[in-house]
UniProtKB/TrEMBL annotation:
This is DNA-binding response regulator, NarL/FixJ family, contains REC and HTH domains. GO terms for biological process: phosphorelay signal transduction system; regulation of DNA-templated transcription. The keyword Lipid biosynthesis does not apply. SUPFAM superfamilies: C-terminal effector domain of the bipartite response regulators, CheY-like. The modification 4-aspartylphosphate is found at residue 55. Keywords: DNA-binding, Phosphoprotein.
Length: 213
């Protein structure tokens, strides 16, 4: 059985998810925690999970900090974010802290099942929320590498800034160019990297070690 940890401060949702996961073949919930600190404390006495489903917004220790802690102390635990937040910057922040997938709380049970199976078997789950283009690549390594995709220095600099919490306007200010010029860098990289979202840019940069985590 594949061991799952549920970390969410909403008790009813957490317990409902535990029941649902218990109905899925091959999975069992071994930890239910209300925040990251509670999760860390339970790790001292309970079995180590193979997958941790983390909410983002929690008291005491939120999902971003919990993912970061897991990455540092138990990198073998695969993190999947489970949230109502669709903001690109939040998704990127979780991916940079080691999340292997990001699904919404209002998803269908079938998507949750698929996400758990893919994260367990392939190491990650990329759904439409993250980027439709990269989902199509499945579990195969990227055919492109930083050496094969021709980027000029400005595009490469923009790609690194795109992996931060800054807005496009703030990136333009940092680079000393206009917002329209930044839009041009973004659109050029969308075409070159065959992605359609800022999250897709971040995934490419992370997987190809263009940004340091």
């Amino acid at each position: 059985m594949i061991k799952i940890a549920l970390v969410d401060d909403h008790v009813i949702l957490r317990k409902s998810l535990a029941v649902l996961i218990g109905m899925l073949k091959d999975f069992e919930v071994v930890i239910e925690a209300g925040n990251g600190e509670d999760f860390i404390e339970q790790l001292k006495t309970k079995p180590l999970p193979e997958i941790a489903l983390l909410d983002i917004t929690m008291p005491v220790m939120d999902g971003v900090e919990t993912a970061k802690w897991i990455k540092q102390h138990h990198p073998h635990i695969k993190v999947v974010a489970l949230s109502m937040i669709k903001n690109d910057l939040v998704v990127i922040r979780m991916l940079k802290n080691g999340a292997r997938g990001y699904i919404l709380k209002d998803c269908e049970p079938e998507e949750l099942r698929e996400a758990l199976h893919q994260v367990n078997e392939r190491g990650y789950y990329y759904n439409e929320l993250i980027t439709p283009k990269m989902k199509a690549r499945g579990s195969k390594p990227d055919d492109d590498s930083p050496l094969r995709v021709m980027m000029n220095e400005k595009e490469l600099a923009f790609l690194r800034w795109a992996c931060t919490d800054k807005t496009y306007k703030e990136i333009a200010d940092e680079m000393g160019v206009s917002a329209r010029t930044v839009d041009g860098y973004r659109d050029a990289l969308f075409q070159k990297l065959d992605v359609t979202t800022r999250v897709g840019l971040a995934i490419y940069a992370i997987k190809n070690n263009i940004v340091l985590l």
